[in-house]
């Protein structure tokens, strides 16, 4: 209760913010519902909150606390340095890139961990194979084949500490192969572009449209030896790579000996149809398939994988080296057990349903409360793009800040050399907990342009 008072007093919870129901908050905190209900009632009585039938519990419209005057005006010691400004933590988080961490399957993971530890061979406590535990590579080979259409021999799989680690390794390998340029999509994560440039590679960009990256342009880029793509669900635009563009990328790789780096970051999450198969299935000898558990389970596990062309395995393993202990062997064994037991499939199915409901609610609420805003991209993944009227991105970001809402503008992901695009927001609807989702969605609708 004291924490809620402090959050309201300091502005972390702005006036009008809708709080989670007593049932949801009690479930998140692991306490009795009556305890939460009593705390809400007391804060309503004190004037911190308001509660109306049908509107839920919200932060009251209280007057802002008086700001402290400067030490000179209040008679403070001369020359005393002013206190640094502390930016309040956002009340709502719709930043893309993270799943709902509160849904991590703790009990099932603990059960798998116990089984894995009991059965772990003695050599699993040593430095081990740089490729990763064979148990996990074997389970991944089977899962990726049936779920993503990947040709994945265990001997071609190398375990990494997530996508960034894998991309860093690939950047080093490409540089050793004297590759000078790796083409990237004109919109994507700047951390990926930075990793490639830090490896000494130039990163020309491929223009994009409603069919994804224009891979047919690769033929006019003679210095390019590889291309980084998000074919199943482009980040952040949310469009899949058109079949003709997929074929063009593979044809380019075969003709030139180039490599396609396939970032399959959320390929398991498609809601309107069966997921599109991975690009790697079209040509396993020219596509490096890169995946992680960061969206399906949690980024904190630091578990990812590379499915490599046969002629790349030795180079990647040598670059990774035995000293690169990227992921705990016990975590690898736990994930292998988690997949083998069927728990991974069950969790993915459960989260697919949960995220689909959130996306459907987002689309429905925007249609009712902000009809000028259009949700674009396919029904997939953990984020959506909200297309705004011209000039609306900057104003929406300012309004979101006033609402205590953390989110990203579409322009944040643009390649430095790409032409400016549309005004839009990138909304991570997978990030909030269930109890925080309603409040975050409400704050988002208040921040968006409204019909007159």
Care to describe what's here?
37% of the residues lie in helices and 13% in strands. With 452 residues, it is of the alpha/beta class. The strands form five sheets. The protein has a seven-stranded mixed sheet with strand order 4-12-11-10-9-5-6, with helices on both faces. It has a four-stranded antiparallel sheet with strand order 13-14-17-16, covered by helices on one side. Helix 6 (163-176) packs parallel to helix 7 and helix 6 (163-176) crosses helix 9 (313-320). It is globular. It starts with a helix and ends in a 5-residue tail after the last helix.
What oligomeric state best describes the polypeptide chains here?
Answer: single chain
Strand content: 5-15%
**Overall helicity:** 25-40%
Along the chain, the helix and strand elements come as: HHHEEEHHEHEHEEEEHEEEHHHEEHEEEH
Task: Specify the structural class.
Answer: alpha/beta
The low-pLDDT segments are 63-79
Radius of gyration: 25 Å
- Please give the alpha-carbon distance between the first and last residues: 39 Å
Mean pLDDT: 88
User: How do the strands line up in the largest sheet?
Assistant: 4-12-11-10-9-5-6
What is the overall shape?
Answer: globular
């Amino acid at each position: 209760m004291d924490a809620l008072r402090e959050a309201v007093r300091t502005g972390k919870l702005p006036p009008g913010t809708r709080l989670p129901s007593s049932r949801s908050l009690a479930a998140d905190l692991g306490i009795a519902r009556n305890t939460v209900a009593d705390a809400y009632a007391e804060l309503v009585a004190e004037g911190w909150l308001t509660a109306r039938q049908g509107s839920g519990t919200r932060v009251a419209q209280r007057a802002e606390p008086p700001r402290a005057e400067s030490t000179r005006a209040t008679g403070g010691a001369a020359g005393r340095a002013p206190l640094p400004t502390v930016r309040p933590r956002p009340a709502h988080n719709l930043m893309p890139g993270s799943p709902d961490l509160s849904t991590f399957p703790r009990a099932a993971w603990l059960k798998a961990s116990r089984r894995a530890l009991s059965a772990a061979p003695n050599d699993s406590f040593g430095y081990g194979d740089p490729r990763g535990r064979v148990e996990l590579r074997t389970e991944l080979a089977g899962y990726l084949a049936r779920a993503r259409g990947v040709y994945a021999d265990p001997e071609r799989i190398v375990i990494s500490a997530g996508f960034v680690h894998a991309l860093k390794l690939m950047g080093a390998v490409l540089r050793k192969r004297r590759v000078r340029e790796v083409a990237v999509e004109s919109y994507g994560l700047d951390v990926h572009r930075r990793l490639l440039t830090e490896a000494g590679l130039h990163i020309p960009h491929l223009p994009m449209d409603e069919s994804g990256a224009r891979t047919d342009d690769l033929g006019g880029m003679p210095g390019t030896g590889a291309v980084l793509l998000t074919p199943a669900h482009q980040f952040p635009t949310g469009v899949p790579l058109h079949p003709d563009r997929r074929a063009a990328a593979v044809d380019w790789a075969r003709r030139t000996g180039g490599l396609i780096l396939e970032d399959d970051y959320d390929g398991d999450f498609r809601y309107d149809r069966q997921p599109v198969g991975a690009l790697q299935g079209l040509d396993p000898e020219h596509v490096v398939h890169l995946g992680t558990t960061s969206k399906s389970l949690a980024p904190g596990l630091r578990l990812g994988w590379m499915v490599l062309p046969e002629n790349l395995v030795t180079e990647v393993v040598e670059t990774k080296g035995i000293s690169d202990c990227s992921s705990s062997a016990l975590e690898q064994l736990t994930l292998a057990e988690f997949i083998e037991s069927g728990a991974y499939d069950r969790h993915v199915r459960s989260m697919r349903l949960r995220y689909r409901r959130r996306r459907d609610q987002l689309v429905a609420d925007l249609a009712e409360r902000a009809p000028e805003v259009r949700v674009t991209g396919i029904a997939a993944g953990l984020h959506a793009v909200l297309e705004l009227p011209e000039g609306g991105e900057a104003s929406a970001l300012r309004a979101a800040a006033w609402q205590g809402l953390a989110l990203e503008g579409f322009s944040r992901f643009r390649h430095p050399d790409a032409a400016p695009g549309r005004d839009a927001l990138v909304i991570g609807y997978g990030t909030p907990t269930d109890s925080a989702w309603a409040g975050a969605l409400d704050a988002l609708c208040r921040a968006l342009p409204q019909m007159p």
